[in-house]
Amino acid sequence: MIVTTAQLFKVAYGRFAVGAYNINNLEQTRGLFQGNIDSKAPFIIQISKGARKYAGVKMLEGMIRAAQEEFPAAVFAVHIDHGDEATCYDAIDSGFYSSVMIDASHEPFEKNIEITRRIVERAHAKGLSVEAELGMLGGVEEDIAVDEGSAFLTDPDQAVEFVERTGCDSLAVAIGTSHGAYKFKGAQGVRFDRLAQIQAKLPGFPLVMHGSSSVPAEEVARINAAGGKIDPSAKGVNEDDFAKAVPLGVTKVNIDTDGRLVWTRVHREYFRDHPEQFDFRKPGEVFMKEYAAFIAHKNEKLGSAGKLDLVMKELGL
Ligand code: G3H
Ligand code: 13P
Ligand code: ZN
Questions:
Q1: 35/173 Cα distance (integer angstroms)
Q2: What is the pTM of this model?
């Protein structure tokens, strides 16, 4: 059943975080539903502009609708990840999505408010919830490169004003994470001090953590042992940090890169070990199983595993 992110956050706040996973193809979609059903977790399907371009808007919708029929017990939101204004309007008018993220974080404060406010009006009129972003993550955000040095954290006072003036339902905050496989160097990590300051000013308001892949060293090593060339300095968020972020208001945790690493490792190892093979369904089957197990593992760390019944009960589904 498709629900809004706002509905999920009402149940999740202070208790667990909902995993938000990007999809681009059939194998990810099937593995995603299987993993969430296996771990009895609510979840958020994220669709980026890149995914819409790669798989096609209609194909993505068709895959999700088919998965919904195959996994009738699934409870999830369908969400635009890092949308611009045009993509958000398209999603709002499609009648399929239950939630959008408008990412105008690269704009000056007033312009970010103005754009976000317009999306909120259109989305709320049609029953969708809206995630917005304030502050800037380091690394690469869609096609906008943000210099690591100029990446700036969300200002807690600005966050209060932003939420009040836009009416958004949740806020993506910049707390030291970044997209991709190279988030931290040395002792760097999630800025819990800043997260706590933001939550103190916005108690009860759902916060979103982007760039939350953990980039396991073992996964990078296996990829490289099978012919990959990922810089071994790749480093992500400690999975045990999710449990620390939940009491500080984080209700949505975005994970994409780690899933790509699973795909890359499975396919590299498969073709290394079976160089005579050319039937892509064979590694595809392995990937779907591994991806489902990966999702179930993440849900355990997020605390969303086993929460499906609670969500159904509290939302009256
Ligand atoms: O934040 C970005 C997500 O990982 C989606 O990545 O734009 O390459 O699909 P993408
Ligand atoms: P990762 O690159 O850490 O998986 O972050 C994904 C993300 O934030 C999608 O919006
Ligand atoms: Zn993101």
A1: 27
A2: 0.96
- Report which protein residue has its CA nearest ligand 2's atom 9: 254
CA–CA separation, 170 and 207 (whole Å): 6
Fold for domain 5-219+233-253+288-314? TIM Barrel (3.20.20)
209 φ/ψ angles, rounded to the nearest 5 degrees: -105, 110
295 and 21 Cβ atoms separated by less than 8 Å:
yes
Beta bridge partners, 233, equal: none
Out of 27-41, 143-157, 174-188, pick the least confident.
Answer: 143-157
Q: Which of 23, 82, 105, 179 to mutate to test the pocket of ligand 2 (most atoms within 8 A of CB)?
A: 179
Contact predicate 128/92, CB 8 Å: yes
Torsion angles phi and psi, residue 122, rounded to 5:
-65, -40
Domain residue limits, the chain: 5-219+233-253+288-314
Evaluate if residue 315 carries a pLDDT over 70.
yes
Decide whether any atom of ligand 2 lies within 6 Å of the 214 Cβ.
no
> String of b and e for 173-204 (b: at least 16 CB within 10 Å)?
bbbbbbbbbbbbeeeebbbeebbebbbeebee
Angle between helices 57-70 and 85-94 (to 10 degrees): 40
